[in-house]
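Memo to structure team: turn this sequence into C-alpha cells by end of day. - J.P.
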Amino acid sequence: MSSIMRYSVSAIACVAAVGALLASSAPADAQGFLDRLFNPKHYDNGQRREAEPVRREIPKVRVSGPRYYTYKPDTLKTASLAKLGRELDAYAQALQERVEEEARAEDRPGAPEGAASVTKARVDVQAPVPAEDFKADPAFLDARAVLEQTQVRALPEVIEAIEAFYATHPAFVWLDDGQIGQKAVGAINTMSEAAQVGLDPADYRVEFPALDGTADDAARQAELMRFEMELSAAALTYALDAARGRIDPNRISGYHDLPRKEIDLKLVMGSIAAAENISEYLEGRNPSNEQFVRLKRALASLKEADEAERVEIAEGTFLRPGGSSAELKNVIAAIGLKGSDNLRAAHADTLAAYDGGEDYAPELVALLKDFQAENGLTADGIIGKNTIRALEGISNADKIEKVKLAMERLRWLPRDFGPRYVFINQPAFMATYVDEEREPLSMRVVVGQKSNQTYFFSDKIETVEYNPYWGVPYSIIVNEMLPKLAQDPSYLDRIGYEVSTVSGQQVSSASVDWYAVARKQQPINVRQRPGSDNALGELKILFPNRHAIYMHDTPAKRLFKKDARAFSHGCVRLEDPRAMAAAVLGKPIDYIASRIAQGRNDNDRVTRDIPVHVAYFTAWPEADGGMGYYADVYDRDEYLRKAIEATRAARI
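Reply from structure team:
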C-alpha cells in the first residue's frame, strides 16, 4: 500500500475515532474538544485562555490639576430702608394699641390686680413684638419717617441683619439724646485702626453727621439716621471680615478647599448693641489664638522699623565651588552684612583678605557653607536660588505684605486649633504636631511640585496604616503610566503592580483595554504592593479627603536634604514618619516599629480628636519666638493679593 494510501486510512481512522468519542460526549464537551483540536493557540496546558483583547491605540490624554480663577469679590448693594420704615409703622401702631388696651384694662371697674398684664399677653398683632427687657426709643420711632429716604450701601447679608435687628429693636445704638455717643466714638476709633490686624480702614469709614445750627428737625433726623445705619453697617462688616476674612478662598483656585464660616449677623448686631466696651468686642472678633497675636505683634514691629540695608545679587546667579562669577563680590558683601557676629569672627581673615575677585576659592566656599548652615540651608557651598534669597534677605515691605496675607489666611481656619493638632505649612516644607501636654514635634516634609500642588484644607486624622499599598491615582495612571503601557501592555505586571476591576477581580495589565481607561469608559484600579520600593514607604497617616492627600513615608530620603522640597504628586512625605505616627497614636516609637516589623498590611485607628491643617503661609511664627518668612512656592501670595485688590475695588 502506498504511503499516501496509508496516510489517508490513518486520517480516516483518526476522524472516525474522534467521531465515536464525540458521539458519546455532551455537545458542550464535543465543541470544546474541537476547539482544542483546531484552535490550539487559545489553550495552555489544556486550559481555555481568554481571547486577546482588541488592541486600540491608546490616545494621548492628560489629566490636568485644578486651576486658578479670576477672583469675583462679594458685591455690595445700595438698598433703601423704606421697608424697615413701614415695619416700624406697624410696630408703633401695635405698641400704641397695647398701651391703650392696658389703660382700658386698668380702668375697668372691679378689674383684678395684674389684669393689664393679662390683657397684654392676649394682644394679637402682626407687627414684631420686642423682648420683655427691651424698651423702644420714642426718638427713634419718631424719626422712622426719614427711613423712606435713607439708603445703605453694604453686603446683602449686612443689610438684611440691619433690617431684622432694628425691626424688633427700634432704638439708637450709636446716639445718646440726639448726640454721638461714646460707643460710636469707640467703634469708629477701633475700625480706623483696622490696619493693625491686616484689614483696610477704608472699608469701615463712616462720615460724622453734617449738622449746623440752621438744620431743621427733619434734616437733623435724616442725617442722624444716616449716621446710625451706616455705622451699624460698618461695624457689622468689620465683625464679618475680622472673623472670616474678606476673601472667599475657594474662589481663588481649585486648590483651596476651605468652607467659608457662617456668621449670624443679627446676633452680632445684638451683641454690638449690648456691648459695654465696643472696642473690646470688635477687636475680639479677630482670631484670638497665639499665632494671630504674634502676627499682629510682628506687623506692628515691622511698621516701626526702618528698611534694613540689603545687597542685591543678579537674578539667575548660580555658582559652584571652583567656578567664577562677577557677582561673587556681592555674595561676600551680603555675608558680611547678614552673617552673625560669630560667623564674621570665625572668618575674619578671609573677609579681610578678600579683594573683590571673581574666583570662588576654597576659603570662600568654607565661609559660604557656614553661612548656609547658620540659616538652615544645605551646606553644600553652591550659590543658588535659595542661598541668594537668604543672602539678600526680604525687604521690610515684603515682610509686611506676607504678614498681612498670613492674617487673612488665618481667618479661614478654625478660631481655636484645639489642644492637639498637626499643622503642615507648605511654603516652609515643615509639619508640626502640637500637643499642649508635650513639646512640639517638627520635621521636614516634601510637598507637591508646582504642577501637582498640595491643596489647602483641614481635616481630621483617622488611621495609621502599616506596610501600605499605594493606590495609584487616576491622574498618574493617565499622565505617567499610559505612555509606557502603549509601548508595553505588560508594563504593570512586569514591575509588580496589581491591576483589578472595580469588582476586585485581579487581571493582567496586558488584558486591559487602556484606550477605554483613558477615555473614562472603563474604571480600573492599580496599586503597588507593600515593600521596600513602595512609594509610600513603611506607613501612611490617613485623614480621608476628596483630594486623596495624606502623610506618608518615602524611600526617596535624599530629598529631605534639599532646602526647597516640592517634589511629590501632592501628598505630604514625612522625614520621620514613625515619630509622627507615634505622636498621633499616643504610642512609643518602639510600638510603631513592631507593627511595621510584622510585615503585613495592617492599621490602627486614631481614637483621639486630632485635626490636621494642610496650610499655606509665607509668614508664620516659629518655635524659637521669631517669625519665619518663606518663598511663595506656588505663587499663591500673588493670587491672594489680586483677590484683595478686586475686593477693595468692589467696595469703593
